Amino acid sequence: MSTTSDDVYQASPPDEEPQLKRVLGPKLLLLFIVGDILGAGVYAVTGTMAGTVGGIVWLPFLLAFIVATLTAFSYLELVTQYPRAAGAALYAHKAFGIHFVTFLVAFAVVCSGITSASTSANVLAQNLFGGLEVNGWMGAPDKGMITLVAMAFMVLLAVINLRGVGESVKFNVVLTAVEVLALCIVIGVGFFVMAQGTGNIQEITVFTDYQDKGLFLAVTAATSIAFFAMVGFEDSVNMVEETKNPERIFPRTMLTGLGIAVLLYMLVAVSVVSVLSPTELGEIRESEGAALLEVVHKGSPDFPIDKVFPFLAVFAVANTALINMLMASRLIYGMARQHVLPRGLGKVLPGRRSPWAGITFSTVLALGLIWYVSIDPDSNIVANLSGTTAFLLLCVFTVVNVACVVLRRKRDPDRKVFFTSPGQLPWVAAILCAFLAGPWVGRNPIQYQVAGGLMAIGVVLWFITWLITRKSAASAGPHDREQGIPPDESRGEPL
């Protein structure tokens, strides 16, 4: 008698913890993936990309999509072989079996969530003030006010998170619809301008070297920037235990979601180039996260769309930030419960049952991060935060692609295979991800400083936890082990 994956993972013995309910079919999973990819990304990076490559701003989106898709092949091979909600950390652990490497991968994912949420907070603040300004309700704010609102938003997220948020995947349908609607407005404005005969459609094949980088380096730099808009697909593997028959529906659904996202992004890019002049394309990078608002404002002078659009953008990026901070705080909680981070970070509110210590820790890191990147008044805060997020995830993706190769060699030849990344594509994806993470793409040094600082904080906390765990285990006898004293990982004892 054959047994499906649903039977295996749902049929739990009576004395075990119940398994997660499998509620996601192909349609809901697709909406989750599209909703996770869309959001703050395209708002955050389009202006910077346009100010780097000019009219061919669509090309970096396409190249970032190709790299993301190659990495998605590796994720699909791994998630169908190991259908567990742990993602990159699980694959690294299965491939290398080194606890410290597993920790680095997991904490890098945590940090990427915090930097992504911080990016969203700044994009939200810029679009909020842009909406107030375009409606004539206030004047242009200074950077200090935008930073203050971004930090206040992070505190608000913490309060919401502390109260306990029951995120429904079906509610994600509404949020995804808002995200798509906002992008469709940008696309519609661009096509309206082209239909009027006043667009600059001929510019979409013109490369303008605003920063004197040369074609190759400029496109490479813009592709590295664009990668921030393509991330999110990897989060869907954490929904695998809530997906019906994941081995069969995940491959087609994830790749379809990536395809929908890049199609929308390229149409947005074409609209931006059509509406703005070459001179305006070079200057739009100064608008940071409000770049698309500039496009809507110029392209629809006789319609009130530009008065509504910024608030749709606020709603879209707010959801992105909330999901990122939910993910980061829960990962910190889980790592503390597994004795990888200090146990105090696993504290839970008695009534609300929300991980208050993880929420507080991730929020403090986010506030410090926003403050640090805003010290330099001439810096592009959104570009630096989104670039840091892309760098962290490119490093994680490099590890995942290598893990795919390692685990393919370890695979039981008699084990059923549901999806395999073609040929040597995992190696190609690993090399491309590592290349885009390098300093040769023109990444601002502050992005490496931020990523290194965040990871250093994690390593210090890991080392403190390791010392405490080792000391406890050294003095623990068999009876103490039975009473729950943590084991010593350094001696190979399982957690």
UniProtKB/TrEMBL annotation:
Organism taxonomic ancestry: Bacteria, Bacillati, Actinomycetota, Actinomycetes, Micrococcales
Transmembrane annotation, as ranges: 28-50, 56-76, 96-124, 144-162, 174-195, 215-233, 254-276, 308-333, 354-375, 381-404, 425-442, 448-468
PANTHER family for this protein: AMINO ACID TRANSPORTER-RELATED, INNER MEMBRANE TRANSPORT PROTEIN YBAT
Name assigned to this protein: APA family basic amino acid/polyamine antiporter
Keyword Membrane on entry: yes
Bias (Basic and acidic residues) ranges: 478-495
Subcellular location: Cell membrane
Keywords associated with the record: Cell membrane, Membrane, Transmembrane, Transmembrane helix
Membrane topology of the entry: Multi-pass membrane protein
Positions of the UniProt region annotated as Disordered: 476-495
UniProt source species: Arthrobacter bambusae
Domain of life the protein comes from: Bacteria
